[in-house]
Amino acid sequence: MRKSFFSRLVIAFLIIHNDLVCVPATSERDKEMFEDEFLKRLLHELDLTTPPNINRNDFPILDDYLDIEEESSTLEKKILEGTSLTIGKPFEGRIHFRMPSTIYNKIIENGKLVIPSSIINFDYDVIDLKVFHILENGTYRKIIGDRKYTFEEMSKANEIEISIYNDELSRLTSTFIEFDLEISGTPYKYNNDNYLLPSEEILFKIINGNPYITYSFFTKYNKRKVRSEHNTCDKTVNDGSCCLQSFKFDVSKPPWNFIISPSVLEIKSCVGSCIKNDRATVNSNFIRYSEETQHKTCCYASEYETIKVLYATDNLGTLQFKNVTNLIAKTCSCY
């Protein structure tokens, strides 16, 4: 049975007004491009032009505060056990840490490296501090945390707190029993036109004091698995049909760290081909007679999840809630 003119008109309207793109499901999909595109759309939904320069670890707010109801087929939640600190040992300008065995197999988040403020003894208006993970042979140097301080903020602080990205903290505590950290800073000064101009990066040598890392640790439990009603991509060679594909992003890292909660964004989209499905559906006649080939493989989101987001609206840390209703796919269908 052929589709009516009205049905075709509705389909065309949905395609135009929902910015639908028909794409094949592939395990080689570029995650970074997907992340960049989603960030642009999320900023638009939150009425932001650029991500605010703010760090979520500066806000003592847990995901449970939002009371978000997830509807995933496998729900994994975490239970806060407590907070702790591990004292480091200054060694050759670096800080050596040995993590306790009690945190193994735990979820470690909200980490901060705390060092004495006396290490900064020069003139500046703003300083951009970074924490690096260094291997013993010096061949590996990766940024794992950062924070900016104004001179006024630093003058009132006895200690410097630098937030560590959640995924990097998890990697350190699960992969390395011991590790070395290094701290650098880039000073900025205002010129006569009130523009901040950077100076050369300075590597700080920690030779005394008691630097330490604070963190929260959680246990996790799994809810009973429920058979999903939605066709999810299984990443096999036969996986080319219309399905739900998901990516997870840790929002403790730039440019996502203006999002205070949730701590992990699971982004879902509909990908794949509808050709082999449509031969056996009510759409088959319409597709066979359609002259527009794009309709033959159009997999679209027929239903969306609602996600409650707590985010910073500016660089001052002004917080706001918003329900995002049309970005994360829940159910996929074929035209």
Automatic annotation (TrEMBL):
GO terms for molecular function: cytokine activity; growth factor activity. Coiled coil: none annotated. It comes from the Eukaryota. Residues 224-335 form the TGF-beta family profile domain. Its main location: secreted. Transmembrane segments: none annotated. Residues 1-25 form the signal peptide. SUPFAM superfamilies: Cystine-knot cytokines (SSF57501). It is found in: Secreted. One of its GO terms (cellular component) is extracellular space. Keywords: Growth factor, Secreted, Signal. The keyword Magnesium does not apply. Belongs to the TGF-beta family. This is TGF_BETA_2 domain-containing protein. It comes from Strongyloides papillosus (Intestinal threadworm).
